[in-house]
């Protein structure tokens, strides 16, 4: 998601489609944090297919600019026609101002359209809905799979093999550090990246348990979740993460350093393939992604297997009440999620599709295609990455930060998450 703060396109806002409307054209307004160069390609393809519609796109850095802009526009009833969303908590914040999409999707794509989504995506688009509400307020555009990316050329130079155990991971980090390379860059100032790593750890201990805990079906004090919190702390104390991680950001800092060959490993996702599509200058590592590959979090102490795939919807879009009064808005949203607009995003390797039957076209190197196929094979098995209720996600973010800094013990931190969960589920 946050990787869409593209390295070559970091601007607060940008508008695609500067030309004034022609007399017979209709306009659709769109806000998102989606890479603006890719969105412009999607808009170009859409407008070619629909010359009577003009799309005006405003790009925001996700945090805090986009979140702040949405809140302000929502309060003044001035949301655009289409807004970028994540499933669960972000969608639920704006659900009262969103149109249900079941009807128009079924009309355009047939009654069985949901069956073409990957299982984790079908689950996530309903996350946080009130009991009995089967309406769909977000349509996914892309999916993601969370992994540990590594620099293959640096590993080869320093004689490091892909870690199979936690001991291997610590040893690799020490070798990287000794070689003057940042071991595993963690943007621990970003709650989203901390959540992602914790989900890798927890799902290795007990797949699906975090999902049960956020629903109140299992306690956050479960031994597996407690051990995962201790594992999280160990990544800092054992030197797997870099010094100063608590004040670091994944984007742009970490991603820039990683692409430049100054970082050995980084917890990101399938979206990292898009680095090969950014315009020159590109480092030797990014060209055709020849310097990168990925693995799953290796077997932790007491485990005999790596972490399972974790992920789901990368980014989706909702139709606001304002957009519901503009028939052209649905036409663009449909293109962006399951039409010519989506195809352009896939061609840019922005991420994986949310619907089966799509794949990138054009200039894709054999190495990237092989990684893409591995991701696609794993996606149907992915564990849920998202949180349905903002207060629970916020509490977990605070707990992870506190444990990482050593200011709170894992037991106390998880108790705070449990208290926040209990309160949120009762409200």
From TrEMBL:
Listed SUPFAM superfamilies: Periplasmic binding protein-like II (SSF53850)
Cross-referenced Pfam families: SBP_bac_1
Protein name in the entry: Extracellular solute-binding protein
Family (UniProt): Belongs to the bacterial solute-binding protein 1 family.
Keyword terms: Cell membrane, Lipoprotein, Membrane, Palmitate, Periplasm, Signal
InterPro entries, per database record: Bact_solute-bd_prot1, SBP
CC per GO annotation: periplasmic space
Species assigned in the record: Lichenifustis flavocetrariae
Annotated stretches, region: Disordered: 406-427
Residues making up the signal peptide according to the UniProt record: 1-19
PANTHER family named among the record's database cross-references: ARABINOSE-BINDING PROTEIN-RELATED, POLYGALACTURONAN_RHAMNOGALACTURONAN-BINDING PROTEIN YTCQ
Domain of life: Bacteria
Compartments reported by the entry: Periplasm
